[in-house]
Every structure is written in structure tokens, then in C-alpha cells.
Amino acid sequence: MPDSLRRFKADIFQALAHSTRIAILELLSDGELSAGVLIEKLGMEQANVSQHLGVLRAKHLVVNRKAGNQVFYSVRDRTIIEVLQLMRRYFHTQLKETSDMLDELDKPLEIVH
Amino acid sequence: MPDSLRRFKADIFQALAHSTRIAILELLSDGELSAGVLIEKLGMEQANVSQHLGVLRAKHLVVNRKAGNQVFYSVRDRTIIEVLQLMRRYFHTQLKETSDMLDELDKPLEIVH
DNA sequence: CAATTACATTCGAATATGCTAATATTCAAT
DNA sequence: ATTGAATATTAGCATATTCGAATGTAATTG
């Protein structure tokens, strides 16, 4: 497999590598929503959400449609939703295999010596 | 869905968000390989590959088995391989939809004037 | 016990990412 | 034309990632 394809994949994974962007894609999985509704449902700063939408747009994971004052977003390809679902399955498998996993999640903070 | 689960997913995606780590997982998809063989097949710096293996280990995407002098790595859960395969399908879909995609891929290299 | 092989870890510099606050832009309505 | 609402962009700072160079650590061999 050519490295260009791997870089493409890595780019997509990078776009998925943030809980807010995952939340956005999940919210959009049932159909399009305006930026305003997304901001409201996420309960986060407008600029912050807009930046995350910008990342998803840049990687073509979402498309946007302007309607007057508003901008409606939707997922471009359902395959991405499938990836997220596969990930959930992965989570459950791992949960069964190692219950330490949850402790591990908190670890990054322990780096403070 | 709780945010902790999204953060877990994001963490895994972060681990996948590098072409070298994707290459490692692909190389391991047919069975375990020693760190040395991985380094050789990747043709990269020993320390660099070891660091990437460290990331994959930290996120439990791979497990390692010590045998004397060597360390053998293998993917912990095939689901991750499935995610990579889904991603390949995604790539092909996108390729059909927008041929600009390839231009986008080469862009970073064109910085050399 | 050297010396070597196979990996891992640490350090430091470069680059990338994420956030808030502030500012722009774009369309709508008065 | 002004104002207001919805969204995007920029600036600046803090933190994270990535890399090569150097160093550390086990196990192996002589």
C-alpha cells in the first residue's frame, strides 16, 4: 500500500481524534443540523465549535449548505459513522478483556511527578 | 453517549493518526513481527519506530511478547484492522466522488517552490 | 566480565493543535 | 443605511506531537 494512502487515512483519523468532533459527527448522524443547533447541543463556545467544524470541513468529513443566515452541516459519507460504530464495538471488547482500561484513561494526569 | 466514551474513541483515533503507525498495524495484520523486522521493513530510524510502537502500546492497540533478546509485537484486537479496511473503502468512495482529492493529497509536497 | 545485539527512553528543538477573546463577514430586517 | 443574528476567522498563548541524537537497559556471546 502506497504511503500516500496511509497519509490520507492518518489525516482522517486525525480529524476524528477529538471528542468534540466525534460528538459533532454523532449529532449529525441522524441528518443535517445548523451550526447554531450544534453549538447549543454541545454547550460549548461558538468559536470553538466553529473551529472544529472547520477541521471536519477541511477533511471533507462534512459538507455544509447555506440557507440564508444559517449554515447546515451533514456528514458527507456514512462510512464515517460506521467507523464510529465499529469503534464502539471495539470499546466493548476491550472493556471485557481488561477492566483496567478505565483506570488507564485517567493516567495521562499522573505524569505529574 | 457519555463523553468518556468519546474521549476513549478520540484517544484511539489519535493513536491511528500517523502514517507510520498505520504502516506498523498493516505489517502486523498477518501476524506478529519483531521490532527489528518492523524497523527494517519500514526503513526508518530505530528510535522513531520504537517511539511509535510505544504509542500503540500505550493505547493497547498492540501487545508485545519478549523472547530473549527480541520483542515481538502483534495487534491486540482485529477490530482495529477492520477499521483500517473500512477506511480504505471510504477512500475509494471519496475518490470516485471528488477527483480533486488526489491534488489535495499532493499539496503538502508542492511547498517546494 | 567485556562486548555486542536488540530495544526502549530521554532530551531538546520544530511544528501542530486547541482554546479563549476579539474581530470579521454575511444575510435579514427594519 | 443601520442594526442584529448567525457563523467564520484571526491572534496569541499553552500544551502536545514528532523527530533525530544521545543514552540506558536487557539478554547473548565470546
Number of helices of chain A: 6
Radius of gyration of chain A: 17 Å
Can you list the strand order of the major beta sheet of chain A? 1-3-2
CATH superfamily name of chain A? Winged helix-like DNA-binding domain superfamily/Winged helix DNA-binding domain
CATH first level of chain A: Mainly Alpha
* Biggest sheet overview of chain A: 3 strands, antiparallel
* SSE-based structural type of chain A: alpha+beta
Number of individual domains of chain A: 1
Q: What is the mean pLDDT of chain A?
A: 88
Biggest interface goes to: A-B, 41 and 41 residues
CATH architecture of chain A: Orthogonal Bundle
Give the CA-CA distance, first to last residue of chain A: 42 Å
CATH T-level topology of chain A: Arc Repressor Mutant, subunit A
Q: Which spans of chain A have pLDDT < 50 for at least 5 consecutive residues? A: 108-113
User: What amount of the residues of chain A lies in strands?
Assistant: 5-15%
Oligomer: homodimer
How do the SSEs of chain A run, as a string of H and E? HHEHHEEHH
Say how many strands of chain A there are. Answer: 3
